[in-house]
Design goal:
Layout: H1 2-19, E1 24-29, E2 40-43, E3 47-52, E4 57-58, E5 61-62, E6 75-76, E7 81-85, E8 90-95, E9 105-111, H2 116-122, E10 125-127, E11 134-138, E12 146-152, E13 157-163, E14 170-174, E15 181-189, E16 192-200
Parallel strand pairs: 1-3, 2-9
Antiparallel strand pairs: 3-7, 4-6, 5-8, 8-9, 10-11, 11-14, 12-13, 12-15, 15-16
Keywords: Copper, Metal-binding, Signal
Signal peptide: 1-21
Protein name: T9SS type A sorting domain-containing protein
Length: 201
Amino acid sequence: MKNMKTKLLMVVFFGICSLQAQTTHDLIWERNFTSPQSDLTIETGDTVRWTWTDALPHTVENNTGSTETFNSGTLTGIGETYSYTFTQEGVNPYLCGIHGAGSMSGTITVVNQLSVNEFATSKLIQFPNPVTNELQIQLPQNFNKGTISIFSVTGKQVLNQEVSEGGNNVITLDVSPLLSGMYFVTYEFGDLLETKRLIVR
C-alpha cells in the first residue's frame, strides 16, 4: 500500500511539473516589425525566441526601463535565431539596436506563473510538431471567434482559417500542401495573440 501511494504521488508530481513546464514563444524579427505584433505577455521561466526573417543585420536588446538585461549581438541572415529566458516579473521593452525603436521594437511583459487550473484552461496547444499532414490545435476553453494564420519565414501568409465562436475547441488544419521547412502559426482570439513555431516535414 505504501509503495502504491508513493507511485501515485510521483504521478501527480510529474503531471504538475509537465503541465507547468516553461514555454517557448516565437517572434519573427525584421524591419518594420513593431507593436502590437511584437508584444508578448509570458510567464516567469518562459523563453522568447526571435527568428530573423530578412537578410539584414539586427540585434535584439533591452531598451531603457527594462526589468532584465539581454543582448543578442549583431546577427545577419534569414533563419538566425536568438533566445532569452525571462526569470523576473516585470516589463521589458526591447528593440533592434541597429534600426532603432521606430522600426523594430516591442515589449515583453512577464507575469508570475499561473496556478495549475488557470494554466490548464488558458493555454493553447498545437501538435504534432514536426507535422506532416494534419496539425491539431487545442484552443482554450473560453476562446472567442478568431483567426489562425500560417506564415513562411519570409513573412508570406500561406494559410488562413477563421474560427467561429462556440465551435469545437479542437481544430484540424491540413498542412500537407506546405513545403517542408519552418513556419510561424499566429493565433488571434479576442485578447489572445500568440505566435508558435511549426516545422513541416
